[in-house]
Amino acid sequence: MNKGTKWLQFRIISILIFFLLSFIIIVARDFQLQIIYKNKLEARARSQYLKKINLLPERGGIYDRNLNELAISIEVDSVYAHPAKVAKPKTLARTIAPVLLTGKMRIEDKLLSNSPFVWLKRQIDLAKGERERISGIKGVGLMKESKRFYPPPNLASNVIGFVGHDSTGLEGIELEYNRHLIGGDVKVYGERDALGREMLFGDLEKSHPIKGNDLILTIDKTIQYIAEKELRKVVRTTEAKAGMVIVMDPNTGEVLAMANLPTFDPNNFWDYRPQDWRNRSITDSYEPGSIFKVFLLAAALEEGIVGPNDIFYCENGKYKVADRVFHDVKKHGWLSVTNIIKYSSNIGAIKIGEKLGGEQYVRYIDSFGFGKSTGIDIIGEASGVVKRFERSKVSLATASFGHGVSTTAIQLVTAISAIANGGFLYKPYIAKSIISPDGMVVKEFNPTVVRRVVSEETAFMVKNILRGVTEEGGTGAKASLADIKIAGKTGTAQKPDLIYGGYAPGKYISSFLGFAPADSPRLAVLVLIDEPAGDFYGSTIAAPVFREIMKKSMAYLGLFPGRKLNVAKKMIPVYKEIKHTEIKKGRIPDFRDKSMRMVMRIANEIPVKLKIMGSGRTVSQRPLPGSEIGSDSVVEVRFQ
């Protein structure tokens, strides 16, 4: 083989090796792109030609116990644009800005952006003419979105809370039950070319997010309104810093009203200070003062340490414990246990506390639920603070009349409810049931007994003593009602000075804690007024507010003597008895002029699937009553 032939073979082999290596590299790269990096590259490609828009979910409604609307979602307009399709951005911005209630420059910046899709304004309520005008502009479109709306704008707002622009709960019940209320969003995709000039969202205006569940609260809208009205009146007239009222059904732990001042409008929550959003009935703790004597009394009676008629010498208004001297507002000599509570003698309470002992007293304070959260289903609950004062005579003395311990409003009304109902501590709650969009009960909340704290006999004795507080001569006389016996206790507590220590001069909390009717309690109420100007005694500030709230709530519930209305049916709505004649086997019943809860109960009895629209009472149904029920029958029921 000559030299030229060898060189030719070398060249051929080299070329073959080169092509072989190239082929191996190409195959390896192809394997890498199509197998190893497949998902990553597909996602990158989609991001280049697809645009995703999340349509806000439609939140479920929030209703009071009688199905009155407290928070609903309404359909509003959202305006979007494809900048590449807009012919004269500056002219359009000048024209459309006043309609969208926003700045011209802001609209112009969006229309001149390189983005293929922009929101010009979300969740705006447009008039029919404005809507038609906008929809006729090339490159601009309209779609329906859900917006949260609170029909009574200030009613129970600190309890209900509010949502952000993304329809997510941020405060109160809206936050606590967000996962049930929020529903499901919808993702809509559109295509664009390499320059981003085309953007086609074919289903944008047809897409509807999944509706969330409805939430029924234990709150009674009428009682809530009464509580807020009376609280607002006293805070205004006394120029107080803040105020709270809680109304509870003592036999179940259901919160019927929870009023707070300051308050806010959740439709425009951004216009208020964050401290105005706070539900002080849950988040704030304070020294309760003389209303705490109720629980000292219950402990001493339960242990058999004292009886209602046992007498103590109250030292004519001045009593020394260790290095501290305690005083009464009025000088008293010998007082029975009943009169110690009736006249609210601090020295008498100290002597009962000394006889009971710190260890026993702490045990009962714990049992009544102080020093730990109640577990109520509202976000942000504080636990309060109970110091261990078994070895401190001074701490035991101050705790005997409600100082040196801190409690929350919800703890106090829950604890007094245990006295009212015969000795059982209930877990307070504010959500009654969760209802799915098709009207089915997803979850129902029921009363929960935490424990028995005192015997029925002890609770009965405490009730009788607290009745004396509201009778003539008692500190709570201004809380009394002519037709109904009231049991309760006044409180006037100095506020601690958190900066310099001790107590702040001239700063007090006035309160009244009680229940009615005393013999068969249906409502337990706490009234608390923070830093009233001028007169600051609970007997003159809080007791009259308690009386007005109780009087008007009792009238609403029909509890005055001689009235025929059954309170249980008003306070704890139950489904009316369903007569067997109303439900014919295999036939759709007549749902017309019935409440939503009644309709759902009947539907569960049959059973039949429901599609519910609106709220209130039934105005129409399809199929009509008497129609045959098929295996997949769905009854469309409209409420108004």
Mind sketching the topology for me?
Elements (H helix, E strand, L loop, with lengths): L2 H34 L1 H12 E6 L6 E2 L5 E13 L7 H12 L3 H8 L6 E7 L3 H8 L4 E10 L7 H4 L11 H5 L1 H4 L4 E6 L22 E4 L3 H18 L3 E8 L4 E8 L12 H4 L2 H4 L1 E2 L6 H10 L8 E3 L4 E4 L2 E4 L6 E3 H6 L3 H11 L1 H10 L17 E2 L6 H8 L4 E4 H12 L3 E3 L4 E5 L5 E4 L4 E4 L3 H14 L17 E10 L6 E14 L6 E8 L7 H20 L9 H5 L24 H10 L3 E5 L4 E5 L11 E6 L1
Parallel strand pairs: 2-7, 24-26
Antiparallel strand pairs: 1-6, 2-3, 3-4, 3-5, 7-18, 8-9, 8-23, 10-16, 11-14, 12-13, 15-16, 17-20, 18-19, 21-22, 22-23, 25-26
What's a concise summary of this model?
The strands form 8 sheets. Strands 2, 3, 4, 5, 7, 18 and 19 form a 7-stranded mixed β-sheet that branches. A 5-stranded antiparallel β-sheet has the order 9-8-23-22-21, with helices on both faces.
What features would you highlight for this structure?
Trypsin Inhibitor V, Chain A; 3 domains; Beta-lactamase; 640 residues
CATH class of the largest domain: Alpha Beta
Helix/strand structural class: alpha+beta
Work out the number of β strands.
Answer: 26
Number of helices: 21
Count of individual domains: 3
pLDDT averaged residue by residue: 84
Helix content: 25-40%
What's the CATH H-level superfamily name of the largest domain? DD-peptidase/beta-lactamase superfamily
Rg: 34 Å
Low-pLDDT segments:
195-202, 563-582
**Strand residues, percent:** 15-25%
- The separation of the N and C termini measures 105 Å
